Amino acid sequence: MSWGTGFFDYDNDADLDLFVANGHIFPQVDRHLEYGQSYAQTNQLFSNKDGGFSDISGVAGEGLKVSLSSRGTAFADYDNDGDIDVLVVNIDAPPTLLRNETTPDLNWLQVQVENSSVIGVKVVVKTKDLKQMREGRSGNSYASQNDLRFHFGLGENREAELVKVIWPDGRRSEFTDIDANQILKIGK
């Protein structure tokens, strides 16, 4: 049974991938083999390639081979290395931190909006071949909150041609020719 889900760009290729936290709601299901279910289940990672999703959980590392009853997920660059990590909340077990240890040759940009709240803020990042948008929200997965920074995989682009912040009151801030692989701090 799926609980916490979220789209994020685990490999910085500018395509949003999907993570799904799984776990049954009834521990008693383990006593009923005829249901074909178990209380503890593995989580899943689906890689987005050209708009199609492939389940890569089996090759994505040891953390995705662990069976627990998972619920919420929070996405953040916990170690500030430019890739998104996943924190999974489990029932009757400690949280699991899935550190993203991929070493892609692809670029990224994080935008940190320095404001009293990021709720309602929209950030648009345009590269030569792609335009991406993220919106600040409270709560993103089942009983979870993501990093308040906006993460963009830039693929092979070494810069963003345009970074635009649209504030909740409608005002806009624009920046051009922003180098990749950094945390860009923007104040209102």
Structural write-up:
With 188 residues, the protein is an all-beta fold. The protein has strands spanning 2-8, 17-22, 44-49, 52-55, 70-76, 85-90, 96-98, 107-114, 122-126, 131-135, 150-155, 159-166, 172-179, 183-187. The strands form four sheets. A four-stranded antiparallel beta sheet has the order 1-2-3-4, with no helix packed on it. It has a four-stranded antiparallel beta sheet with strand order 10-9-12-13, with no helix packed on it. The protein has a three-stranded antiparallel beta sheet with strand order 5-6-7, with no helix packed on it. It is elongated and about 60 Å long. The termini are far apart.
Shape field: elongated
Widest beta sheet: strand line-up:
1-2-3-4
Structural class: mainly beta
Mean pLDDT: 94
Q: Helical element count?
A: 0
Tag the structure with descriptive keywords.
0% helix, four-stranded antiparallel sheet, elongated, 188 residues, single chain, mainly beta
Summarize the structure.
The protein is an all-beta fold and 188 residues long.
Tell me the layout of helices and strands.
Elements lengths: L1 E7 L8 E6 L21 E6 L2 E4 L14 E7 L8 E6 L5 E3 L8 E8 L7 E5 L4 E5 L14 E6 L3 E8 L5 E8 L3 E5 L1
